[in-house]
Amino acid sequence: MPEISLNGKDIALQGAAPVASTNSAPAAAVHAKKDTALYGKYLVPGEKMTPEALAGYYNRNVEEAKEAYDANDWESPEQMYSQFEFLVEHIDLTGKTLLDVGAGNGLFFEFLTQRGIEPEESTAIDIAEGQIEIVRQRFPDVTAIAADFFKYEFEESYDVVTMFGVAPCLKFIFPEKDRISALLRLLDRALKYSRVGVAVSFLNHNCYLSAEEEGYEYVYHYPEELCTLLSGARYDLSTVHNDLVTTCFIYTHDATGQPFRFDLNRIDSMLNLLK
Ligand SMILES: C[S@@+](CC[C@H](N)C(=O)[O-])C[C@H]1O[C@@H](n2cnc3c(N)ncnc32)[C@H](O)[C@@H]1O
Predict the structure, then answer these.
(1) C-alpha distance from residue 71 to each of 24, 58, 105, 209 (Å)
(2) Which CATH architecture has domain 51-274?
(3) Where are the domains of the chain?
(4) Residue 125 Cβ contacting ligand 1 at under 6 Å
(5) pLDDT, tens digit, 9 for 90 and up, residues 48-97
(6) With a 6 A CB cut-off, is 173 part of the ligand 1 pocket?
(7) Is any ligand 1 atom within 6 A of the Cβ of residue 218?
């Protein structure tokens, strides 16, 4: 099977035609199972990219940054706050129930308080226990859950689900999946738990090309890609309000009042055909 070298590790190309071996390596070595895991280069150098590695990365961040914005890994406070501003311009959270996925150290809750916006009930979930610990200490009224959003089964749904900065982390959750397929899994799961809508932010095309070239672990998307995928949905997409981040609010129901969901299997089949 042909191999490529990624970060110094040899990786068998999935789906590639087998090539007859011409060397005389011992049978056990020839049949040894290849390690196809992706290895981190920037965020978790040398480590396998797994949900646990992601949690470890953000635990280390928050151990240092504590309540400061850099626990959340934005380049500047403006990047982080521009997402929050976009949301409150589009939807009034007063009296609504809120689930903040990938809540980090909870600065979104601080922002809402400063603006005098009071959701009826707030829940935070983050895969990094250290981030959630800060949320518990600073915002005792928020129900704080340390878990992977893709594994935790919520007992209820929420008016609004927010996911700021979660899409860029998808390579750690779905290392084998196409990045579009991974994004749709995130959106679909959030739509399933929302009654009014879902806010999602992602790193955009301004850093996409260099990121691809450098093999950076964060995942990037073009705003145009999202518009295509959301055909049929009701949504508001930010004009790219700063160099790197785009934010989108997707309404749970389409114009005919039906819940908007993705047919993930069909989309995966189409993505496979396009490979
Ligand atoms: C870039 S930070 C953003 C934090 C905060 N939402 C903000 O905008 O400042 C991304 C956060 O999402 C969390 N995260 C990523 N994938 C997650 C998942 N599948 N389940 C729960 N948390 C996740 C990370 O641990 C991290 O704290």
Answers:
(1) 52, 7, 7, 26
(2) 3-Layer(aba) Sandwich (3.40)
(3) 51-274
(4) yes
(5) 999 999 999 999 999 999 999 999 999 899 999 999 999 999 999 999 99
(6) yes
(7) no
